[in-house]
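Batch manifest, entry 17 of 40.
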Amino acid sequence: MRGLICLALLSVAISVIAADRGQALQLFSDLKRTKKGRSFGQGDDFVSVVQSELLLAEEDYVRSSINGESDVLEALSGGAAQTSGPACVSFIKQKAEIMMNLAGVSYATCLRVVDDEVFAVLADATDGAVSRDQYDAANVLNAFRGENIFVDPSRIRGKLQQRMRGSFRLPELEADKIAEVKKELADVKDRFVECMKTARGGLEETLKATSKQLKMVCADERE
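Output type: structure tokens
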């Protein structure tokens, strides 16, 4: 009976986690629906496009992280996982959650760095005519700054909606300057992707180790 109760409680806890992860992914759906209406006042709106592309690039890593966590949580629901008792399963669940939260910190760091780099490129291209406050008024990257997408996605959503309602106009730039800025922003995006790959790789390794612990310790399955 106690085992059944523990499994029921575990099922509820996993459902709560799944709901939270769904909120995280919903952020990107919100961005996709509204990004077309945003404008930075420049002909092809390339800054807005770059910001959106950066966040949508993050979506792939967030989604794959959630899938990796789901594999671990699904294994916890199996009867074999209960071999060593409910406490072992609880430890594994807590560890997986901690690893996801740490990955969220790493992802936030990547976003903070790329956010600063994008602004630095624009400030340099306009000879300092763009202030940080002006830029942040409609800066969707800033909505994720200092926030953990796996801990409080609802807080990010509120900030994201506010940024999407904001507006900001770049000073007029010559065509050659725009081409130069686009090239620099493309390089910034490449560095961001590498940062996210590294962060995702660290999480993947820890989740694999956690799955191995689940099998060897909780399920008592020896290789």
